[in-house]
Amino acid sequence: MVMQETVRSFADLTAIARAFMSQKSERRLLIIVGDPGVSKSSTFSRLKDDEKHRIIKAGNLSAFQFYLQLYQSRNKVIILDDVEEVVKRGDKTLMNLCESGAPIRTVAWYGSTSQLKVTRGKKVTRVPQEFKTSSRVVLICNSWDILTSKTPALLDRGKVVFFDPPPGAIHEFVGRW
User: What are the residues whose beta carbons fall under 8 Å from the beta carbon of 8, sequence distance 6 or more?
Assistant: First the structure.
């Protein structure tokens, strides 16, 4: 059963984001759905602490780049922004990351093992084929239809928040910039 609520104020969205990003949150998956350009992403950006949180712009990442970003972000709160492309391709890595069973999950890459080393200049970093993480995850998405058609199993694993501010609230919020 999908646990969901609709939020219409920026203050309420900020409170939900702050609560999830705190170390006290028991919830492991939060899905934020709303129209493009209503400051979903910037709400999380304003609250981000680089030691505890990582925002990943997932929209243009290949499956392997996505895996590398998750590996580099393990055990932090991961905010996946523009997650539609990852969802459309049915990325199993995302499903592993958002598994609801145990607090520690295994995320794996069983594609080409030749990709599992990253070279920068003379430095070679080896990336394991699988890693464990306790990361809690936020998915920021503009399309409810993509989520329901491609990853319905995810929707039962966390809380879905529909962010639907009225036009007046958007104008007031933008006016404070």
Answer: 164, 165, 166, 169
Q: Residue 113: pLDDT above 70?
A: no
> What are the tokens at 66?
């996505």
**Residue 149: Cβ within 10 Å count:** 11
Domains and CATH numbers, the chain: 3-111+125-175 (3.40.50.300)
CB atoms within 10 A of CB 58: 25
Which residues, in sequence order, are CB contacts of 126 under 8 Å at separation 6+? 116, 117
Report pTM: 0.90
* Short-list 1, 153, 158, CA closest to 90: 153
- pLDDT, mean of residues 15-19: 95
Distances (CA, A) of 40 to 31, 90, 93, 128: 11, 23, 23, 33
